[in-house]
Design brief:
22% strand, 1 helix, two-stranded antiparallel ribbon, binds zinc ion, two-stranded antiparallel sheet, 74 residues, 49% helix
Length: 74
């Protein structure tokens, strides 16, 4: 194999690797963003436990003590 083609191969591999990592990072960021829009944050007024539940529900029961809480609005 010619030295030039070895360098070209390494450059191609390096670019492919960088492209893969950029793509994986983009997918991870998109998944976190969709999680935020789908879940609501609740904070229990009785035991101060913070938990999440579906965005459709207005009230959610605390998993720690069973108290029904309203969603935290930011
Ligand atoms: Zn609670």
């Amino acid at each position: 194999m010619q030295p030039e083609s070895v360098i070209a191969m390494w450059v191609t591999l390096l670019l492919a690797g960088l492209g893969f990592f950029a793509l994986a990072d983009e997918f991870r960021r998109r998944r976190i963003g969709s999680d935020v829009s789908q879940d609501q944050v609740f904070r229990c007024v009785r035991c101060s436990s913070v938990y999440t539940d579906d965005a459709e529900v207005e009230r959610s029961r605390c998993p720690q003590c069973g108290k029904t809480n309203e969603a935290v609005r930011f």
